[in-house]
């Protein structure tokens, strides 16, 4: 008995080479797929974090909107502009704001 491997036919050799190439290609494909999944997971985590921050910002803005609406509601009955009181010519000359509570710019150009 000899320790030599039996000779492979050309077809067997081609088949083995093809199987080896296929194995390597499948390995590369699985590696790319894993990398892509990792990238998608990172993107997901980042988007979740952004979403959380945006939700907090929405809450802050809603609270500010509520506060401003309440301030406007309490100011409206006292506002000379909204109550259509005649404008004072003197206030226009002095460039005094018509609604000091809201700190509007004067209606008259400077």
Automatic annotation (TrEMBL):
Protein source organism: Electrophorus electricus
Sequence ranges assigned to domain BZIP in this UniProt record: 12-75
Pfam families from the UniProt entry: bZIP_1
Cross-referenced Gene3D superfamilies: 1.20.5.170
Protein name in UniProt: BZIP domain-containing protein
Sequence segments annotated as region (Disordered): 1-39
Any one GO CC term of the record: nucleus
Example GO molecular function: DNA-binding transcription factor activity, RNA polymerase II-specific
């Amino acid at each position: 008995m000899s320790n030599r491997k039996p000779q492979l036919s050309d077809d067997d050799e081609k088949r083995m080479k093809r199987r080896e190439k296929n194995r390597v290609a499948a390995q590369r494909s699985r590696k790319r797929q894993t990398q892509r999944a990792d990238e998608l997971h990172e993107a997901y985590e980042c988007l979740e974090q952004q979403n959380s921050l945006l939700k907090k910002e929405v809450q802050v803005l809603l609270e500010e909107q509520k506060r401003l609406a309440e301030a406007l509601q309490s100011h409206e009955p006292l506002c000379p502009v909204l109550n259509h009181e005649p404008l004072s010519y003197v206030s226009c000359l002095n460039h005094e704001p018509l609604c000091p509570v809201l700190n509007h710019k004067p209606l008259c150009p400077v």
